[in-house]
Write a structure and sequence with these properties.
Elements lengths: L1 E4 L4 H13 L3 E5 L10 H4 L7 E4 L2 E4 L1 H11 L11 H23 L2 H26 L10 H18 L13 H14 L6 H4 L2 H12 L5 E3 L2 H10 L21 E6 L7 E8 L3 E8 L3 E8 L3 E5 L11
Parallel strand pairs: 1-2, 2-5, 4-9
Antiparallel strand pairs: 1-3, 3-4, 6-7, 6-10, 7-8, 8-9
Helix pairs in contact: 1-3, 1-7, 4-6, 4-7
Length: 317
């Protein structure tokens, strides 16, 4: 697996720590923190959120799908033990959709901005803020507010502090995808000296975060974006995929469609529909100089709408 990411990306940290739990070697491509991302867009077709995973000419968007793909390929230790499925789903939603959003106003508060400006510079911070504002202009949710953060961050931290009183990880003695999902916003806030106290005031949460950090990121080989593009161009065919279209979707095989995230960062990706199930959407699209790629998205949180046919490549496989 190639992971396209940048060091300070919290959702990238979610995947990196999952790779550490699995002990899986991977290849690392560093992408810019903000647009433009000229070597990533040919792979994603316009999807801009970080991280993105790549296996040959198959491209995977969204950490939920990346972790599911990792679990399917490396079954132990399990990120998704079946007996904990509902608890993991609830904690994933809390981490990815509540705590991450609650972390943003903390980081952009006055003490948080001081540390960010020290790291990025005044011009870099302004560019970062403008880029993230644009990210929330599309989709069903706007940029989170300080009120949202106040309503969710500390009540959630207090609940996690209570849950961790008799266990090493959120659901027991071993980390799962639930820990990965809660850890990344905690890691994001704790890494900013101006607001780290929003984590460190909870000693059990801080100790759990130390245990998560100690799991590491397994073994990563740094490669260039050009190397990743070359791997996509040279790959022989695609990863195995069942050709199926959910009959309730009203869509058909090879139909031209547009896929977009519905929460934020809703840049549309166009292609031919080749798979639509309860868990996944897959399209084929023609990428200049790379040939036909398959772009994979989770079903939840993404819309699939009919296209006009102009952007759908003719199948070459």
């Amino acid at each position: 697996m190639i992971l396209h990411h940048f060091d300070a990306s919290p959702f990238s940290e979610k995947v990196r720590i999952a790779l550490g739990i699995k002990g899986v070697s991977w290849q690392s491509v560093k992408v810019p923190r903000i647009l433009p991302k000229p070597d990533l867009m040919p792979l994603t077709g316009g999807y801009r959120r970080t991280p993105v995973a790549q296996i040959g000419r198959d491209i995977y968007a969204d950490t939920r799908l990346i972790l599911a793909e990792l679990e399917a390929r490396h079954t132990t230790p399990a990120l998704y033990p079946p007996a904990q499925a509902a608890s993991i789903a609830a904690l994933e939603q809390l981490g990815d959709q509540v705590l991450f959003l609650a972390a943003i106003p903390l980081l952009l508060s006055e003490p948080g901005q001081v540390a960010l400006e020290r790291a990025l510079g005044a011009v870099g911070l302004a560019a970062f803020r403008a880029d993230r504002a644009a990210l929330f202009e599309q989709g069903r949710i706007g940029a989170p507010t300080a009120d949202f953060s106040a309503a969710h961050w500390h009540p959630s931290m207090a609940a996690l502090e209570a849950q961790l009183q008799d266990r090493a990880y959120l659901l027991g003695d071993a980390p799962t995808a639930a820990d990965c999902a809660i850890y990344h916003p905690v890691w994001y806030v704790r890494g900013n000296p101006g607001v780290a106290e929003a984590v460190t005031r909870y000693p059990r949460v801080a100790a759990w975060a130390n245990r998560m950090q100690a799991l590491g990121h397994a073994t990563a080989e740094e490669i260039s974006s050009g190397d990743a593009l070359a791997q996509a161009a040279a790959a022989n065919g695609f990863e195995p995929l069942t050709a199926t279209i959910d009959p309730d979707s009203g869509l058909t095989m090879n139909q031209s469609v547009h896929v977009a995230a519905t929460d934020y960062g809703g840049d549309s990706v166009a292609g031919r529909l080749v798979h639509l199930s309860q868990g996944r959407v897959v399209i084929e699209r023609d990428a200049p100089d790379l040939g036909v790629l398959r772009n994979h998205f989770p079903r939840a949180g993404f819309s699939v709408t009919p296209g006009d046919g102009a952007d759908a490549p003719a199948s070459v496989y």
